[in-house]
Design brief:
Blueprint (H helix, E strand, L loop, with lengths): L7 H16 L6 H8 L3 H7 L3 H23 L6 H18 L1 H9 L2 H25 L8 H14 L5 H11 L1
Helix pairs in contact: 1-2, 4-5, 4-7, 5-7, 5-8, 6-7, 7-8, 8-9
């Protein structure tokens, strides 16, 4: 009778987090995951086609946690400008926390990096729109992604003063 595995995906992701935390992203491999989880390498491929898929899943989970936190935080804000500052701070913290994973994306080809960048802009635009709606503000739909791109600019050019980023976002909107 075949061995029945429960919560395998969850166990794999937790093991991947531990490997990355302890030894860095370069130490993560299907073989290493197999050792840490007592699963066959072939079994792991049933859940994730490659290392990049695991890394992307970890980033997506972190993003969902951030998104939940941000949406809950909107009620405590006193102004739209305060919300822009919150998004700025949280997006920068998210980027710094996951920098090793993002670096791995760029080393494995531009397609993964550009997909993660596009996703960041898209998801950032949704949060920016939700923030505006929270304060009963409306802007043209096409402006939200352009404004969200300013957060990405701030991440790539961390010496840019926050005031310049905020002013640019408000001009775009």
């Amino acid at each position: 009778m075949p061995k029945i595995l429960t919560n395998s995906e969850k166990k794999l992701l937790e093991a991947a987090r531990n490997i990355i935390k302890t030894n860095g992203v370069d130490d993560l491999s299907m073989k290493r995951l197999a050792q840490k989880t007592d699963m066959a390498v072939g079994t792991i491929y049933n859940y994730f086609p490659d290392k990049n898929a695991i890394l992307i899943r970890l980033v997506v989970e972190e993003w969902h946690n951030l998104e939940t936190h941000l949406l809950a935080s909107f009620d405590s804000l006193s102004s739209f400008s305060d919300g822009i500052h919150l998004l700025y701070d949280e997006f920068n913290g998210f980027s710094q926390k996951l920098q090793p994973l993002f670096s791995s994306f760029t080393s494995h080809g531009n397609a993964t990096y550009y997909a993660s960048y596009s996703s960041f802009i898209e998801e950032g635009a949704k949060l920016l729109k939700a923030l505006a709606e929270h304060f009963s503000l409306t802007y043209p739909e096409a402006h939200y992604p352009m404004a969200a791109a300013m957060f990405s600019y701030a991440i790539h050019y961390p010496n840019t003063p926050y005031e310049e980023i905020q002013a640019a976002i408000l001009r775009i909107l």
